[in-house]
Amino acid sequence: MASTDVPKLTRFQLPGFGLPLNFIPCAESSEGPAKGEGRELFRNALNMWDIQDGYVQLPLTTLREFTMLHLMNELTDKPDWHKKVFDDTIAAKWKSEALATEGLDITQKMVDWCIDELRYKAKMFESTGAVIVYNGDVVKSDSAIPTSIKHALKEAVAPLEQVPARQQDWHPGSNERVLDLVHPSLFPLVYGRSRILPDSLVGLEDCIKRSGEGETIPVPLETEIELGSKLGYGHAPLTKPFSTQFQWLPCDVDISDKDSVNITSYINNLHPDKHKDLYSAIEKIIHHTIPIWNLTLTPLRAEHIFEGRVRINYHACEYNPDPENDPEIDGPQQEDDEDEGNFIQRRRQWYEDTRQVVQPEPGTFKPPVAPEDLHDEIYLPGTTELKPEKSTDLRRDYSHRGLQVIVKLANIHLTLEKPEYEGGTWHVEGQMNEHICATATYYYDSENITTSRLGFRQQSSVEESDEVDYRQDHHDWLEPVFGCQQNGPGIQDVGTVDTPEGRLLTWPNILQHQVQPFKLADPTKPGHRKILALFLVDPGIRIISTANVPCQQREWWTEVIQHEHSSISALPVELQDHIFEDIEDFPINLEEAKKLREKLMEERKHYVVEQDDAFKWHEFSLCEH
């Protein structure tokens, strides 16, 4: 079981230092006294118990409902969709175009629902500039980040790009297509190697000067890498979600001012003095991202919201044609010399080949609300406004303690010699050490590439298939209705979202995601795609951050020493290098940091495979009734 025996935490009691690595806070509403900050963590697909206990499952969704989601996603990519959707002529045109799409299984009732739902969503879009694309929630916005901030980010990033070729940090294994500008896998927290301050914090002004201070953080015990089931189940977890070697380091973010945010500790691998403009731009982007994260995280506080969003219900399997129950349909007849058993088998095969599963239809759109019997639990009396404990407002709930954010800046560069990006793997961000609960990716610069997309898939409730009424041994509805197979995993492909320049995309860590392939639009010219990724540490827990670990980069530290000690800077460069090379212990030089990065990436590569296997743990097992 995870340890939860610390009633009130200080800034220096952290998982892996002063607390067991697997420390998990307990909410005030749980049995027994509250532990930590008294707020339960968000559900997370990094937590193998959350996977096994069903906490990351979403409702089993029909393929037709996914088709509706895809259509609404496409329509909300249109300029001024929130205004045009109320124009009956334009709405009718959108409906007819969808119905005329070759090979698309879509009906009049489906397109009617989509337009009605978009008219409902347009009201939220007017106030937030954001659209919930897929359940989970995946949220997109093309206006959350003002254009002026996008330009400021581009200008502030430029110095990181304008370096000699020998200093460019191409991501290992990317064949010099992915350029890391700021990446958390370089100079991470290394258990048994990194220095941590036991009783003080570092800010932006002294984080480099204090490099080397503190004590070496111990390697966690093997007993600290397991988690317990929230439901008290005794079965063993599928894999160990914690690393005893590494942790990505977040920066601390002060959100006490409702009109701005303030990064109070250094962004790992981003020099706080040389890149002040970039710090400023990232602060502004975090500020504008917080309301979008609120939309993404709220359903994880009130999971019954998902139940109220089901657009197409499927309660019973029906066939049309249904040769077994229609005497007017002629079928194979037994031949004079045919064995009875062979005839029965041949006729049964004809039944299976002839019958067609009737696809379900949506009803009439109604605003999504939780089931009626749960209204009092979820909503304020007499309203459909969520109770504070059933919603997420990061500023309201966590302004007293701030947020922790892991920052990544990366470019994908395509050339005439390397014109394609093959795409990524299905994964969830981080390991449990980081407690990432949501991601925000800002696509701030794209040039000469085909449409780039991010794909999502969900773990769906296999138990819901047991509620479907069907005939003995008739399992042939599972694949055409839900896209799943008997004895197969409860995983459903949700769909993709386009990622054009200027788009902010957020999603929770209950979904797997995958970067889709793209290539040069014009193969005679180079192209690129540049992103800023923000990984939000679950604000219900505080982990070791750059406020606790002074800068580990030896190159940064030597610059400060040279500046402050003129006697050293007066020496020949070769002699200076020799002096600093003799420092064997700490800070860490770039060569060692890259070797440690290789170990971290290898460990996480194996973890991604293990997590993917765990994600597929729940399987369909339709009863023989």
SSE order and pairing:
Blueprint: E1 14-15, E2 18-19, H1 48-52, H2 63-75, H3 81-84, H4 88-99, H5 108-128, E3 131-134, E4 138-141, H6 147-161, E5 178-182, E6 189-190, E7 195-196, E8 215-216, E9 246-247, E10 251-254, E11 262-263, H7 276-301, H8 304-308, H9 340-354, H10 375-378, H11 394-398, E12 403-414, E13 420-421, E14 436-447, E15 453-459, H12 478-482, E16 491-498, E17 503-508, E18 512-515, E19 518-519, E20 527-537, H13 554-564, H14 566-569, H15 573-581, H16 590-615
Parallel strand pairs: 1-2
Antiparallel strand pairs: 3-4, 4-17, 5-12, 6-9, 7-8, 10-11, 10-12, 12-20, 13-19, 14-17, 14-20, 15-16, 15-18
Helix pairs in contact: 2-5, 4-5, 6-7
Describe the structure.
Pfam families: DUF4246, DUF4246_N. InterPro entries: DUF4246, DUF4246_C, DUF4246_N. Residues 321-339 have a biased composition (Acidic residues). Residues 14-97, 108-559 form the DUF4246 domain. Helices cover 29% and strands 15% of the residues. With 625 residues, the chain is α+β, with helices and mostly antiparallel strands. Strand 3 (131-134) and strand 4 form a beta hairpin. Helix 2 (63-75) crosses helix 5, helix 4 (88-99) crosses helix 5 and helix 6 packs across helix 7 (276-301). The longest helix is centred in the middle third of the chain and has 26 residues, at 276-301. The model is unreliable at 1-7 and 29-36 (pLDDT under 50).
